[in-house]
Amino acid sequence: MTIYNKTKLACEEGSTPQLTYHQKNVIILAKQYLPHNIKSKINPHNLEAERIIMELKINIKEGITLISLSDCPGGANFLAEVLAQIAAGGTDVDMIALTPSTSEKTAMSFTVSDEDFAKVLAVTAALQKENKALKVSVSGGYAKITAGSGKMDGCPGVAARIFAALSAVEIAMVTTALTEISFL
Fold this sequence. Notes:
Helices cover 33% and strands 30% of the residues. It is α+β, with helices and mostly antiparallel strands. The longest helix has 17 residues, at 23-39.
C-alpha cells in the first residue's frame, strides 16, 4: 500500500492542473526541484533566514513504511513498551509522532524501513491481542525528505519556505527538531 500509487493529471476547463505523484516522481521532485525552489526567491526582509536556506542540507531516504496505531492506551508507558518490543527485534524506528490525548486513549505513528515492517507487524499483532481496541494502519513505499541546518534554531521563516517548496506533494507526516525538518 502506498499513497503515491499512481500518476495522473486532472484538469478541467479553467481549473489549475492537480497532480498526484508516484513515489519515484516525489523523489525526482525532491532531488531536482526542492533545493532550487527552497533556495530561490530571496526575501530581502529576512536575510538571516536567507543565509540559512542557502546552507540547507537536503537528504532523501527511500523505502520507508508508516505505521499508525490508534485507540492506544494513553501515557508514555505504552509508547515505551511498543518501542522496546520493536527494538528487541532489531528494528530501528525513525520518525515518531504522538497525538495529544484528551482521554485515556491516544494515537501514535512511526516509521521503519520497508524491509523491517513484517517484524513490526508481528509486534503490533501481539499488542492487539493484549489491547483489543488497538487499531493498526500500515502504508509502505514512502520517501523521507529531511532539510536541515545547524543554524535553523531561532530563525523564523525557514520552515515556511520548506513547507512552501513541498506544497505540490502530499505530506503524510512531519517531525521537527531544532536543526531539521523531516517529511514523509
